[in-house]
Amino acid sequence: MEQANHPLVVDLDGTLTPTDTLVESGIKLIRRSPAALLRMPFWLLSGRAGFKRAIAERCGVTAHSLPYHQPLLEYLRAEKARGRRIVLATAAHSSIADEVAGHLGLFDQVLATGAGDNLKGAAKLSMIQREVGADFVYAGDSRADLPVWQGARGAILVGASARTSGIVRGGPVPVEREFNGHSRSLKVWLRALRAHQWLKNLLLFVPLFAAFSFLDLAKLGHLALAFVAFSLAASATYVVNDLWDLESDRAHPRKKLRPFASAQLPILQGLLVAGGALAVALVLAALVSKGFLLVLLLYLLLTSAYSWVLKEYMLVDVLMLSLLYTLRIHAGAVATGITASSWLLAFSVFVFLSLALIKRCSELVLLQQDGRTATRGRDYRVDDLVVLWPLGVGAALSAVVVLGLFISAPETQARYHTPDLLWLAAFGMIYWLGRLWIKTSRGEMHDDPVVYAIRDGGSRTAILAIVALALAARFLSL
What we know:
alpha/beta, Rossmann fold, Tetracycline Repressor, domain 2, 6 strands
């Protein structure tokens, strides 16, 4: 019980906040100035303390946007209320530590990396003993904290690994409290990779469907490899995009729950997984064909341009999204050697432009419901809805017009046994797209309309009916 009255010294990275403030600062700096990536190796030559100072001087983290370990934070506040001294001791740069301390208003003293040594391990213990005294309880999370725990009078474990926890529990220092960290299960990683978004890559099969070549096993085999390649490449870009948008995602009511924004997964592990997924994707793409590999590289180039720059520009972002969806259809054509008709590509551009505008409108409707007026990281305001509504509905109707012209085209009349059945499919398109827009206006739309359509019973019924009518029009003679 004696150690419960000793000063409580708390680590920052991985403990008070589950994230790594140095890595976040580095990503934020690279986003502001990509040339900084080339200068970072030279900053390392001055040591870790100098490296941290160089990054912190140019770009720090925003304390109010950081995720915090709430159970630990509540415990610290309770201990502070009963008169216990609370100290923040971190290897992060002092500018970051001071900003966090100022935001939380909890700490009596702040010890952090400054112009001298990097405050980690034995250096941190020495600083604590000099500034706080020999009698203290330390809250940490990693093996790097073991020297500090060995010199403390008590330990608090926060999200520590089983091995680290076992070492501390087996030592002479009593454990005052233990707090569990985030689960890093396969389910969480699948969320980070957005495995549910892989359904979008079924668009690769559209040219095969449009050509009615369902039984060509060679083409199906190529498409299976192409699907996996596209899915892994897309997941890699999703991870990088989430890391690129950490601050803006944390300001969003739903995106703040994403694995990296909420710090359920470490940033560095995310980068490693993204790199591995991308490498496998490129190998598989090369196995499909050289042409498909080039299309995949084009997709990566365009989606990177979208993530890093273009999504911040009004309307440019939705046009780019419609192009990326249509590029999947073109990729499927390249993988199978089937020529995608201009009818199909024009139809897909308008459909996906409408869906992209649904995505933006749903976000603005949510902001409107929350009483906010503008998005963060995108050039849209709630007032823009008066223009975006008709633009999106107009794109949907343009897709139906293209479908109507396709039905009336001589090549369609010659190829389909009963082409007039396609007019029923056109009415099905009007119903489906109109349903999505009505759901959006009601504030019921998921951030991603494609995912919503897959989960929505009415949308699934409409899409299946459209497919069935297309097959009937092609093969049935009435």
